[in-house]
């Protein structure tokens, strides 16, 4: 009897099934759109992606959003893919972001972005992957864009922390670990006190630096994307708990960083939902309320 109870407990502990306990609305502040990568192995599971065409990537992403109660997703990627996603998901559900990607460094001309923000084509600036191009977000190249974002009150999401292992030997020789340190943002935060900025990937693994920036600059928020599903779960929970303990529970926002793996949205939700140290109100804040306030859609 004792053995069978133990076996049952072990079976439960090892069960791969995930039953979501949080049932409220979710805002995903970090999604990507663009070409599919058929067969690409999910970095967390090693299993091939569930999306084997561009259309499937879009359809399955929207399906996962509905499954988890994601009422708003902020997407970035090629213009045509963002437009397609907005048509498929609706303008209230999908917001497009100005994307700093490999093809256009640093960003489209400022006046082009100004028009797109004013007519609502674009709602946020990000993901800004300056680190991948060897660019410091506090340097002069970014100033005209930050001035525009501050003038129009557009939120700016900047990639911080790390990238897939080996990135400097692959796509992006300009990439350096040091450029992902959230401390790099301090000069521009001082120059633009009214700018709404969020640290994408919450600066992991720069815990002390992330705490310091969030503490000193109360307007800054952070998203928990990618670290909530790619890095070891215990490492993510330790990091999240440290930020909560430091008093940052009202500044953290849910993001998945779904790239070419729609199932990653489920993994990302599970990463937060499985944190036993979070109470229902804390989960609600991270999954929805903090982003609703930061994005000013709670008014
Ligand atoms: Zn990123």
Automatic annotation (TrEMBL):
<dbReference type="InterPro" id="IPR006680">
    <property type="entry name" value="Amidohydro-rel"/>
</dbReference>
<feature type="signal peptide">
    <location>
        <begin position="1"/>
        <end position="19"/>
    </location>
</feature>
<dbReference type="Pfam" id="PF04909">
    <property type="entry name" value="Amidohydro_2"/>
</dbReference>
<feature type="domain" description="Amidohydrolase-related">
    <location>
        <begin position="27"/>
        <end position="297"/>
    </location>
</feature>
<dbReference type="GO" id="GO:0019748">
    <property type="term" value="P:secondary metabolic process"/>
</dbReference>
<keyword id="KW-0732">Signal</keyword>
<dbReference type="GO" id="GO:0016831">
    <property type="term" value="F:carboxy-lyase activity"/>
</dbReference>
<dbReference type="InterPro" id="IPR032465">
    <property type="entry name" value="ACMSD"/>
</dbReference>
<dbReference type="GO" id="GO:0016787">
    <property type="term" value="F:hydrolase activity"/>
</dbReference>
<keyword id="KW-0456">Lyase</keyword>
<protein>
    <submittedName>
        <fullName>Amidohydrolase</fullName>
    </submittedName>
</protein>
<dbReference type="GO" id="GO:0005737">
    <property type="term" value="C:cytoplasm"/>
</dbReference>
<dbReference type="InterPro" id="IPR032466">
    <property type="entry name" value="Metal_Hydrolase"/>
</dbReference>
<keyword id="KW-0378">Hydrolase</keyword>
């Amino acid at each position: 009897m004792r053995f069978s109870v133990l076996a049952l407990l072990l079976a439960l502990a090892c069960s791969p099934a995930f039953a979501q306990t949080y049932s409220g609305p979710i805002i995903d502040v970090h999604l990507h759109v663009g070409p599919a990568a058929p067969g690409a192995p999910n970095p967390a599971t090693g299993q091939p992606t569930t999306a084997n065409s561009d259309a499937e990537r879009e359809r399955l992403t929207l399906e996962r959003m509905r499954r988890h109660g994601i009422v708003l997703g902020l997407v970035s990627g090629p213009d045509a893919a963002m437009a397609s996603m907005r048509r498929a998901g609706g303008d209230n559900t999908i917001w497009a972001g100005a994307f700093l990607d490999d093809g256009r460094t640093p960003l489209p001309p400022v006046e082009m972005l100004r028009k797109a923000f004013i007519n609502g084509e674009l709602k946020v600036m990000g993901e800004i992957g300056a680190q991948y191009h060897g660019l410091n977000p506090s340097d002069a190249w970014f100033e005209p864009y930050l001035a525009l974002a501050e003038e129009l009150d557009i939120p700016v999401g900047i990639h911080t922390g790390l990238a897939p292992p080996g990135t400097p030997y692959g796509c992006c020789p300009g990439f350096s670990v040091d450029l992902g340190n959230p401390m790099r943002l301090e000069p521009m935060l001082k120059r633009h006190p009214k700018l709404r900025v969020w640290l994408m990937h919450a600066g992991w693994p720069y815990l002390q630096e992330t705490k310091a920036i969030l503490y000193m600059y109360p307007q800054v928020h952070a998203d928990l994307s990618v670290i909530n599903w790619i890095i070891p779960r215990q490492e993510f929970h330790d990091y999240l708990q440290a930020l909560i303990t430091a008093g940052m529970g009202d500044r953290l926002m849910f993001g998945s960083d779904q790239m070419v793996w729609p199932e990653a949205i489920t993994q990302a939700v599970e990463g937060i939902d499985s944190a036993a140290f979070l109470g229902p109100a804390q989960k609600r804040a991270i999954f929805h309320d903090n982003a609703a306030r930061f994005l000013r859609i709670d008014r």
